[in-house]
Amino acid sequence: MIVPLPTLDYQSADAPQQFALSLQHSGFAILRHCPVDHELVAHTYQDWQTFFEGDDKVHYTFDPKIQVGYYPFQTEQAKGHTTPDLKEFFHIYEGHPLPRGIGDATWNLFDQLKQLAIELLTWIEAQAPLSIRSDFTEPLDTMIADSKETLFRLLHYPPLPDTIPPGAIRAAAHEDINLITLLPAATGMGLELLDAEGQWQSVKCDRGDIVVNVGDMLQLASQGFYRSTTHRVVNPDGPARHQSRLSMPLFLHPRPEVVLADGKTARQYLQERLREIGLV
Ligand SMILES: O=C(O)CCC(=O)C(=O)O
Ligand SMILES: [Fe+2]
């Protein structure tokens, strides 16, 4: 039986416990009433919708050395997949300029999400058993607080083409590489997670909710106490086929020199994983 993911109230007294339980069980949690401005989310989506609809984007084509910029439609394929995903996206990192026409909302949202992530990492740490916590090489929140590696990915899944390459979906099944991911509710359905029984479950959330998921780096650092769960974005049916979908995950990455486990640094781990998905 599929038990849907609960939506948790960030402001409730037991939010830290409920949040950590959800991450242990499914690798995902849905939070409502977070200190993230809904207007800012809407504004950011508007700016990037305009960007992806325009012709200017090709002038920002990504620089593979620094992984910044615009990745055209069907550039990325998930680990172990041969068909590229039906998506285009833009990678931004702190300190790098945004495309013309993108206003302050994007950086303001980045800052609000990062502050929230810092707090959520203190919850994640406090809720882990001492035997797990004591092996963290430093507090989880300081791993990311001054990091310049955190990646904001603005994603656009265009309306589906008339002919879809066999096996191609909006985002093929994958796990995130980083510590945790914060995902403001996307503009459309489609996100699914693979639950412990091997069933795909739709991640249902409302506008304004924040979805949080565990990445491989946290799974590694917590010796599997927190699970990094496989997820994907499926192609819609019916009229939604003709609609685009936007989403904007913030991938929280530690400073490169942070040791995750067994002497392995975040830098070493990230390079291994990027090679696997063909991004370096
Ligand atoms: O678009 C989404 O809802 C999720 C995207 C995702 O999982 C990713 O980019 O890693
Ligand atoms: Fe992901």
TrEMBL record:
InterPro entries hit by this protein: DIOX_N, IPNS-like_FE2OG_OXY, IPNS-like_sf, Iron_ascorbate_oxido_reductase, Oxoglu/Fe-dep_dioxygenase_dom
Chain segments annotated as coiled-coil in the UniProt record: none
Segments forming domain Fe2OG dioxygenase: 147-254
Pathway(s) it belongs to: Antibiotic biosynthesis
GO MF annotations in UniProt: metal ion binding; oxidoreductase activity
Domain of life: Bacteria
Family, as annotated: Belongs to the iron/ascorbate-dependent oxidoreductase family.
Protein name: Oxidoreductase, 2OG-Fe(II) oxygenase family
Source organism (scientific name): Acaryochloris marina (strain MBIC 11017)
Lineage: Bacteria, Bacillati, Cyanobacteriota, Cyanophyceae, Acaryochloridales
